[in-house]
Amino acid sequence: MIQSTKGWNWGKYELGEDRLHFEVGGQPCFVIPYRDIAIANVQTKNEVSLEFKQEESAKEKGDMLCEMRFLFPHAEGEVDEEDQQESAAQRFRKVISDKAQLDDLAGDSIASVKDLPFIIPRGKYSLDFSEDTFKMHGTTHDYKVNYRDIEKAFALMKPDGKHMALVIQLRSPLRQG
Description:
By secondary structure, the protein is mainly beta. It has helices spanning 56-59, 81-85, 88-99, 105-108, and strands at residues 12-15, 19-24, 27-33, 37-44, 47-52, 67-71, 111-118, 123-129, 133-137, 142-146, 150-157, 164-170. A hairpin with a 4-residue loop joins strand 7 (111-118) and strand 8 (123-129).
């Protein structure tokens, strides 16, 4: 099979049963198995980022792909009522999440906490706790943290004497961009 090596950053995608196929100029460019996708986020109305699972054995080998972004530009005259409700990027993220079974944590959830204020990453996040991990759901980003990646945790009293701050040190940082 001939692979496209044109260096173009645009093309067509096809969502297969177990993988995403990307073509440039009618030739295959790359394939992403859904099982390798850890998180899919809508960054802007027309941009989706896919973050990939990072295995410890692969980290020792050197460089690896952590994230890939897909841009869905609007062609003039193509916007209809349905697109106003849900953009192409949101539909793409939803299909990827379904095929990669990224939202299956909801069935395994032990506990949930809604709208906690975070300093880093900044914003309000809802937490879903499962047996091995917890997911942080924000307005623009989702993160998944394995409990084994937590090295230290501190509960610190805030200056008002009423509230507490929880500081968590992670072995591997949260990735964004």
